Amino acid sequence: MLWLIRRGSAEQLGSYVFWANSALVAGTLAAAFTSVHLYRLPPAPSPGRRRAERVLLSGNLLLALLMGLLTLLVVPWLGATLGLWIAALFLPCTILALHARVLATTHGALGAAAAISAAPLLAVGCGMGAELVLGRTPSVPLLLALNGLAQGVAGAIVIRRLGGPWPMDFGAGARRRWRALARRSRWSLAAGLGNEVFTRLYIFVVPAWFGAAALAGLAAAQAMLRPATLLAGAFGAAARRPLARLRHEGDAAGFWRLLTIGALGPACATLLLGGVVAALWPWIAAWVFGGRYAGLEKLVLLWSVVMAISCFWVAGLAGLQVLGRLRALAMAEIGGALVCALAMAPMLLLLDAPGALLAIALGGVVQVTLLASGVRRGLRDLAPNLVPAAGAR
What is the pTM of this model? Predict the structure, then answer.
């Protein structure tokens, strides 16, 4: 994204942001039916776990193929800026990589999960380097192609290594389990849809209201805060296996303590980073962004607040998924999405594009409150005498 911010047009940046977020939306929908169920499996290896993994992977592959075909149907209707055919490859590869990352984290193979994230960074970096050497302007189709292929190859390698010589199952038994999973996935699907409305509504509303340049400004203000998301993401990836162990051991106090530390630490680091980036923004705009996107200090601070709140969301999400409280998770996601959606238009009218971030923050506070309540109820059912009282630290 930094390459497009510095050398690309606002339309190119908007196009990349659109497809990157579309891939994540597709990944969320696919995960609601497949990947999310990996978190509920016992952490210890067993033949039963292996069979469940094969069924879930096969379902994920079918959904990835369906998303690719759907993209081919939609692209001709999106116009010249957004109608990129390579997206039909980018979306399925992203879905596969997201599933592989979840599989790796549930196996405790954090190095493999990190490799799936590092592969597209390396591939895209090489592509940008080649464009720079050749003196060419950025190409969004090239970036999407490199990103998608790197994710797909890395994800396939990890799945093959962790899943054995034939990690898929398309037999009659697998199809029966797909139908059962579809019935059980209604709450995880509702949660996924609610979260996508909450986190990505502005991606579509802001450019429709103010144009692509406004979305580009929001993306540029967030770009230097991206390292903060890695902290929360790392906790979410690393904590699920220990949380599953604590759940199976009935250690509610340890479960709650791990979630609290995993939320507060990244949140404080995010706010600190936001303050530093805002203070250094004139230098960042002049030197890192090539003289573009000056005067975004307030947007940076707003983003840091939004992203700090999201650290608590990551912790609550991990906790409820491991506890298997998918209905409580769905209610929290839907509650946050409704508040965000209802607040979006008034905030945009009052504050223009930055108002979108305030709407997201309001929805995030509601969301996190409901997540914490769901985790507390889940732990009370797990071990009533070990759950800390409300307000206790």
Answer: 0.69
